[in-house]
């Protein structure tokens, strides 16, 4: 029998706090009952969860709303009432390392992504040291070729452009950006914005989009690498999307290795959502997403449409897929940096340290946010980990091929 995680002492708590503690208990107990195939008892608990939770309430009520929905979906599937909420539907794109479903005409999720980038401290905290690592990696190159495996807003590359344009001892003759994406319109629009910015900086710039429906189709000759270019590769939340197809992941890494990059910067989710044990996976998932919802509460307005979009279309989808599905349908399988280190070693990759300048910039950016003190920065060996109130969320690591 699962004991109450917060004990039995509810005295001294307000109504909302009592409600939150009860919700946490009900969610854990419901997951345990489903794991033990005690569906009737789980169903009754989930009915209580639905009553107490809310998609517009406190952070606990909001995250509980999506976990209760996912648990109900899993219960429906296991008892024969299948609705396939965790599966694919319509168009998809990747944000925060999660495949997002959206239909044509629905609000563009880029607006929510941009506000999250502006207001969530760990987004920018990892951006600057990543850019600094690239700047240092191509310091002696006159022609720089950046390969972005998951171009989004392109904000980071405006910072890189400023740094390259400011070089006087070894001026940059050409900055090439090859962007891999699945949405040709958004990728090309970002390319146009970056081209205009480069022109304003007086930086010679070329942009090439590679639009693919499947990363397995990525080939070396698509990149048009020349011998006099220093190649840097940036991988933002891309590799984990291929964990269910290990042969495709292996093929991608071979392509990257053959590009002979001088540096590869990798940003990934720091979580363990790939356990074969449903209940263990549920616990890990609950801690991870609870930290995100708590961060949104601190950094964004409660009724912000972008916050609601982030919670529903980004995190809600991730929770549904991790909790409700199994087998090939469970496409979201986050793993931590220790797993990635073992994988990268197979391709002769060596992790390198961040410079003191990179780490200084990360801490400087963190302090500029109103709630920056709640954003935790830690080192996991040579890897930089960013989290919220001590819960790791993202990692940034830098690698070379040997």
From TrEMBL:
Stretch list, region Leucine repeat II (LRII): 189-221
Pfam family, any one: GRAS
Region (SAW): 324-400
Transmembrane residue ranges: none
Alphabetically ordered keywords of this record: Transcription, Transcription regulation
InterPro entries tied to this protein: TF_GRAS (IPR005202)
Entry keyword Transcription regulation: yes
Family recorded in the similarity comment: Belongs to the GRAS family.
PANTHER family for this protein: OSJNBA0084A10.13 PROTEIN-RELATED
Name of the protein in question: Della protein gai1
Organism: Thalictrum thalictroides (Rue-anemone)
Lineage: Eukaryota, Viridiplantae, Streptophyta, Embryophyta, Tracheophyta
């Amino acid at each position: 029998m699962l004991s109450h995680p917060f004990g039995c002492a509810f005295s001294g708590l307000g109504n909302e706090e009592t409600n939150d503690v009860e919700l946490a208990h009900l969610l854990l107990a419901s997951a345990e009952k489903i794991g033990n195939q005690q569906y009737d008892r789980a169903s009754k608990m989930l009915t209580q969860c639905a009553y107490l939770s809310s998609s517009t309430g406190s952070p606990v009520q909001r995250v509980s709303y999506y976990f209760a929905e996912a648990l109900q979906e899993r219960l429906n599937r296991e008892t024969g009432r299948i609705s396939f909420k965790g599966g694919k539907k319509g168009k998809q794109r990747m944000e925060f390392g999660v495949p997002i479903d959206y239909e044509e005409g629905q609000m563009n999720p880029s607006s929510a992504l941009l506000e999250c980038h502006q207001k969530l401290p760990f987004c920018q905290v990892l951006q600057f040291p990543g850019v600094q690592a690239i700047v240092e990696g191509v310091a002696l190159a006159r022609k720089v070729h950046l390969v972005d495996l998951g171009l989004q807003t392109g904000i980071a590359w405006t910072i890189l452009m400023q740094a390259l344009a400011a070089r006087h001892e070894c001026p940059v003759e050409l900055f090439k950006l090859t962007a891999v994406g699945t949405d040709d319109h958004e990728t090309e629009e970002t390319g146009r914005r970056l081209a205009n910015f480069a022109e304003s900086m007086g930086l010679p710039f070329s942009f090439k989009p590679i639009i693919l429906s499947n990363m397995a189709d990525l080939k070396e000759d698509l990149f048009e690498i020349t011998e006099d270019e220093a190649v840097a590769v940036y991988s933002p939340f891309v590799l984990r999307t291929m964990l269910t197809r290990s042969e495709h992941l292996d093929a991608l890494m071979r392509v990257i290795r053959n590009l002979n990059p001088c540096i590869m910067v990798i940003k990934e989710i720091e979580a363990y959502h790939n356990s074969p044990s449903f209940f263990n996976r549920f616990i890990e998932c609950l801690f991870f997403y609870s930290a995100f919802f708590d961060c949104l509460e601190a950094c964004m307005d409660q009724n912000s449409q972008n916050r609601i979009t982030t919670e529903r279309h980004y995190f809600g989808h991730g929770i549904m897929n991790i909790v409700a599905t199994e087998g090939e349908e469970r496409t979201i399988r986050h793993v931590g940096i220790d797993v990635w280190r073992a994988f990268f070693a197979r391709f002769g990759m060596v992790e390198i340290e961040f410079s003191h300048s990179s780490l200084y910039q990360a801490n400087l950016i963190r302090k500029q946010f109103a709630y920056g003190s709640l954003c935790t920065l830690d080192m996991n060996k040579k890897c930089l980990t960013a989290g919220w109130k001590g819960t790791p969320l993202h990692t940034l690591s830098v690698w070379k091929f040997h």
